[in-house]
Amino acid sequence: MIEKLCVKHTDLSQSDIEKLIKTSEMLPMIADLVRADVFIDCLIKDSDVAIVVAEAKPSIGKSMYESSVVGQLAYRVNEPAALRTLEVGMATRDLKAITQENKTVIQNTIPIKNNNNKVIGVLIMEMDVTQHLAQSRQMEILSETTEHLSETLLSFKEQESNITHHVNEAIIIFNNKKIATYANPGAIKLYNKLGYRDNIVGMSFDNLVLGGISFEKIWSDSSYETCEVTIGNLCLQTKYAFLKHKDKINGVVMFIKDNTDVKEKEKELILKSVVIKEIHHRVKNNLQTIASLLNLQSRRIDNQEVKKSFNESISRILSIAVTHELLAQKGVDDIDIKTILSKLKDTTAVYGISPDKRVQIEVKGDSVIVNSDKATSIALVVNELLQNSVDHAFKDLDEGAIEIRIQKGSLYSSISVIDNGVGFNKESVKSGRLGQKIVEQIVKDKLSGHLTIESSLEGTKTMFDFKSE
User: Which of 63, 379, 395, 466 could share a disulfide with 447, CB 3.0–4.6 Å?
Assistant: First the structure.
């Protein structure tokens, strides 16, 4: 039965299951020794719920159960001790629980570990308890610690100004006998969420600690201890500090911070980053596919004017693909425009410059972070300006240089494309050319900027600006 339940409901290995089977063989003897019902529970797959895989009832004395509970589930709200031990690997004593048959019991739990010291199950011993006995025990604990309670609370008041920044955290104070003498509302709320039904004031440190550290280690090390632990769906960070009164250590403070929301947001950001990467990767692939198809088709065309139009379209598509390629690598929606223009420069150098010309292209200036939409628009504009320089600036020259200069501003940033070519007469250039139209429209409508062109016999400088992020 154990093997069948473990294989179906848990992630335990075969060797782990065999160890649980061997442990279960001792359950009847344990049940008779402690005169109580004993069980073995294991965590089910991807959950903070446990399942009962083995049980034994005492032959001496009365069992709390009318029927078998093997195969039934144990929830944190009903059995906090069992779930705590399974998750943090520490024993728990005398913690109240509700059985599968809706009876109130006291649970003592011990972790069952494999050869690698990993918790694979929990051994649970359950005993009946009346409300009268529970109240008597609570009064006994509080009576034993009255003196320490008074001293610790006095110390807490004196130290209050030093821990006011922890008011949003759970705070529990323990005296030198490991008994909780104070718990703030945050602590009470947190332990209620963890399934604790009784007042945690008066409980032992061993029943409340959430990490693997012992009270004795904290006390002897005379230092702070910090650890992070996952309890079910909660991610909690615990810190420890000493309470001093008249230079004497008389207590330990446990601070517990709930980092669950922070971790969830981190997961969301990681997931968002993965999704953004995948979207940009697919867009880049689709654009490159379109460019390849156009390139294949252009090879079948003899008309040079038509072929040139095809090549210009391919260049524009690839300029957009460059942006999405870089965004796919980063996994975010913002990117440095200098990185994009450097990549665009390399693409133009390979595909746009005639083999018989020596034209150097250089990117200089500041780094400017822009979003993907603005980056795509800027890449298109610079691509058109680069293509214009490559096609017309060096017609009668064997070599030349093109500089892309980026200047970051507080409100507006600017990009200039400067060549040392032959220049041109702006009045004689045909208005309404497709490339010019594309540049003017994108700068005005997409970038909310202005376009200026200066040209002489020493070359051409085209500058446009755009609003900074």
Answer: 466
